[in-house]
Structure formats: C-alpha cells, structure tokens
C-alpha cells in the first residue's frame, strides 16, 4: 500500500479520485504557481513597477516553459517550500538574466503558494459541485418515485412508526441541498488572492501596492481581502468544513443503506456489489461502506485544519505545513465519496414487498402511537397511553395483532381501517418527499 491509499494503484479507485488528485500533483502545483507569478508580473507592468518586456517574458515562460518537479526536491527540502527552487528553474526558462530579475518582485513564497492553491481549489469545487448536483437530481427523482412507498421508521435502532421511503430519501438530500447552496458564498468568501509581501505590509510594492493587488485579483478572478491572510486561516478551515460536511451527509446515506441491505431486512438492494472470496452467495455493499469510511476519514482530517488555524505572528511555517497534510486529502476523499454515492444510487433497488413485510411483522405495534392519539379523542391522554401500553404487552405475549387486542379492549366506534392503514398513518412523509426543489435545469 502507498503512503496514502488514494495514491495506490491498487486502492485508488476505492479511496481516491483521478480528476481531483490531478489538481494536487507536483506538476499541477508548479503550473499554478507559474501562472500566479505571470499574473503578478503583468499587474506590476501595468502600473509601471517592472518593464513591459519583462512581464511579457515572464508570461511566455509561464505558458510555454517546463519545470520538472522532481528536480526541485532537494532544494525544497532545504527551504521548506518549493518557491526558491521554482524561481531558479523559472529564471532559466526566461533566459535573459535582466528580464528574469523582475520575476517575483516584492512577493513572498506564501503569497505564491496560497494563491496557486486557490486556483486549484476553485477547479476542485467546480468538479465537486457538478457531482453534487447530479446526486441531488438523482435523490430528488428517487424521493418522488417512492413518496408513497410505506416503510417502518426506525428510531435508536428500533421500529417506531410508519414513514415512506421517499421521506427517508428526502432526509438524505436535505443537508446536501444546504451544502450545495453554501458553495456560492464559500467561493466568494474563501477564494482569495494572497499578495501581502514578506510580513503582510506590501511595503516592497510601493505606493501602488493596492492597485497591483486588485489588478492581479481581477485577472485571476479571485477576491481581494482587506487584510492579509498569511496567519488568518479560517478560509481554509471553512473549505475543509464544507468537505467534511458533504462526506458526513453522504456517509449517513451509506450507513442507512448498509442497514437496509442486511439479509434479515432486505428493504433495498444494491446491484453490482462486491463478492466474497470465501462465500459465493455474498454481494457486499462496497459503495455504502466506502461512504462511511470516507466520512470518518474527513471527520478526522478536519481536526488537523482546525489545529492549523493556530498560526502565530505574521507568518508561521509549522502551522502552514499542517494544512498541506490535510486539505488535499480531504478534497480527494470528498471526490471519491461523491463518486461512490453516484454508483450506490445508480444501483439502488427498492424492495417494496420487504418494506410491507416489515410493517406486517410488527403485528400492528407500528400503529401504537396512532392508536394512542385516536383514543385520546375519547379519553384523557394518560388513560389512552396506559391502555395502549397494556395492549402492546398483550400483543407480545399472545401473538395477536394490536388491532384485534384493541377491538376487544375498547368500547365505542373507531375507524379501525384508517387507524391501521399504513398509507393513512404516514403523516407528512409523502409531502416531505415531494418537497425537494429542482435544481436549475432540472424538470419541475
């Protein structure tokens, strides 16, 4: 196994994601940093800080040059950051020493690395948003299709009352809708330029420092914050929190499906499950298992980003490096979770007959709350609760149904058919299942 399973050819389809991992390769990081350096040079040239021909040479080298990340390893290990080694290789790509001398003018390593990270995170969030939208569309369709499919609700692991599978699915989708809506403000608040210079003052940029920063932010389509964020890392933590929240919501789906696919329950099936080396009859719910595992992994990783907020003074290399260990892994794990969720929902089959059998197997006890409320219309609530509790005990002892027992215990007319009709006792569940809104572009 590799250092992390997402990097392993053997395990990467379980724990990794090729599209998102590509944004966190050494080559992708170097490319992003070169683009940031080019944007800085163009902004400085536009405001007369460096010559136009220097900016042009820097931009051409950033666009056309090739820097081998492996050649930067030794110097990166010495410096603690790759920027000095990248700049040396970049100046070689520029060629002319005079023009190359204007590269990285007034900037600091953290500005380039953090801004390059933002460019890659923006791409990552676009990929994640596309996948999340597809999952929400699929969940909404499933909720609508199963809005009236009655099943047993379960609380604290025990059968409780009647609900519908559509309502269960709507509950799965509910937090994911919120996470989807949070993306726009997250991008606005977190996708920021970092250009604050050696210690946050931009002194090396001179009197046009703010104009240069604004020009650069506009060119890179990033927000320009009022304050330096070298040591204000809440934006990184916000991104990590969003990632952990998404995988947590997906993990909840996996947990529910894992329970519902148990042989003794069998209320849903997942086609295409994994096989067992020892037991030919098994079809293991791999996608559901991975959703749970990845949710737990991101829940662990978000703690490292919270620790990394403890940046000191104007810059802090130790806390900064801690982000590098956690954030890329969280992005890739979120991509993997969304991919597994898509596979799970694609292969999900609802066993309505099994859901009906579960309700029947309760011998009517699933209607105990409804019976108590109906009787409370004819007697005090405490008396109704006591009567139904006694009836439930009789059901367990005798094997009779709750309806039969109550009909023997209760004088007066009740609408027994409605009281013990699961569709009539599903309450607000069908409406909830139909309440999920379409995303833009989806059918109403």
Automatic annotation (TrEMBL):
Disordered: region residues: 421-444
The cross-references to CDD domains, in alphabetical order and at most eight, read: pCLME
Q: Indicate whether Mitochondrion appears among the record's keywords.
A: no
Matching entries from Gene3D superfamilies are given as: Fumarase/aspartase (C-terminal domain), Fumarase/aspartase (Central domain)
Span of domain Fumarate lyase N-terminal: 25-295
Q: Coiled-coil intervals in this record? A: none
Query: In which domain of life is the source organism classified?
Result: Bacteria
SUPFAM superfamilies hit by this protein: L-aspartase-like
Q: Which UniProt keywords apply?
A: Isomerase
What EC numbers are recorded for this enzyme? 5.5.1.2
Name the InterPro entries on file: Fumarate_lyase_CS, Fumarate_lyase_fam, Fumarate_lyase_N, L-Aspartase-like
What GO MF annotations does this protein's record show?
A: 3-carboxy-cis,cis-muconate cycloisomerase activity; lyase activity
Asked if the keyword Transcription belongs to this entry, the reply reads no
Which family is this sequence assigned to? Belongs to the class-II fumarase/aspartase family.
Q: What protein name applies here? A: 3-carboxy-cis,cis-muconate cycloisomerase
